[in-house]
Specification:
The structure is a single chain. The protein has helices at 70-74, 99-102; strands at residues 5-15, 20-25, 39-40, 47-48, 50-56, 59-64, 80-84, 106-108, 114-123, 128-133, 140-143, 151-153, 158-160. A hairpin with a 6-residue loop joins β10 and β11. The chain has 2 helices and 13 strands, in the order ββββββαβαββββββ. It is mainly beta. Strands 11-10-9-8-13-12 form a 6-stranded mixed beta sheet. Helix content is 5%, strand content 40%. It folds into 2 domains: 5-87, Elongation Factor Tu (Ef-tu), domain 3 (Beta Barrel); 99-160, PRC-barrel domain (SH3 type barrels).
Length: 169
């Protein structure tokens, strides 16, 4: 199931006392986020318009229209910022996906036996990881590489996942 809105960033904190927001940007080209203004909330109702936007270490800093102090900025912590899918470029590489399109896919082993469902795509700094939730038990992460996930079929809503030996021991 695809969505009309794609999550592009999350407000993860505040920088200083003048309402500067810290953003974690989910994009291969985070420097282009300003091209998609205004961003919106998950419902598409609230609009977020940045006045300034710049890299800062491993995140981005932004000032937002209507947010001028730390208290107002703190209230936005955790907000996810979206852009309508039609504003984003079409994906030309058949092995590249929007994260939202992977979430909810059935995960099956090489023999086609269901092993769970992809519930999240995360990146803690060393590459994308898929979080798999089995029918019973705790979820676990696998690297989103060709060796571990050799096949993704968005049309059938499933992915083949080869769980690395020893991961679930």
């Amino acid at each position: 199931m695809t969505t009309d809105l794609i999550c592009m960033a999350e407000i993860v904190g505040v920088h200083g006392v003048k309402g500067v927001l810290k953003l974690k940007v989910f994009s291969d080209a985070p420097e282009n986020l300003m091209d998609y203004m205004p961003l919106c909330d998950a419902a598409g109702n609230r609009k977020f318009n940045f006045l300034t936007y710049q890299p800062h270490k491993n995140i981005y800093l932004a000032t937002m229209d209507g947010v001028s102090d730390r208290s107002a900025a703190e209230k936005l912590r955790g907000a996810r910022l979206y852009v309508p899918r039609e504003l984003l470029p079409a994906i030309k590489d058949k092995n590249t996906y929007y994260h939202t399109d992977l979430i909810g896919l059935a995960a099956k082993d090489a023999a086609g036996v269901p092993i769970g469902k992809i519930i999240q795509v995360a990146n803690f700094g060393a590459g994308d990881l898929l979080e798999i939730k089995p029918a019973t038990g705790a979820s676990y992460f696998v690297p989103f590489t060709k060796a571990v996930v050799p096949r993704v079929d968005l049309a059938s809503r499933e992915a083949t996942v080869i769980v690395p030996h020893g991961l679930l021991d």
